[in-house]
Amino acid sequence: MLLDLRRLVVARNRPSEETFIQFAVRLGEYEGRPVNAAEIAEMANMPRTSVIRHLNVLEARGRIRADKIGRRVVRRPPQEDFPENKEFYLELERIVRRACSALSRMDTLAARHKE
Q: Could you give the domains of the chain?
């Protein structure tokens, strides 16, 4: 799975840090809790200043948007997603599904082996 994820990130032909930050933004939205720069920095294990620099680039390109909620500035995916993002997330979903299926099979085999 990790090799498949690396291949997917490298194929985007963009800085991997940028891809991981964009992914963190998408994950926050998916979980129903938009994230700010500090939360992304913690998730990505990166300095907050680096995250902010990448966020500014992504926002300037229209890859994410910034919304102010109270005093927090949270990042969200754009209203209209880019076609290559849709393809990326579909492939990511396939990779995760395959990994989950393989882990489930391994868990079943381990449980049978214990019996």
A: 2-114 (1.10.10.10)
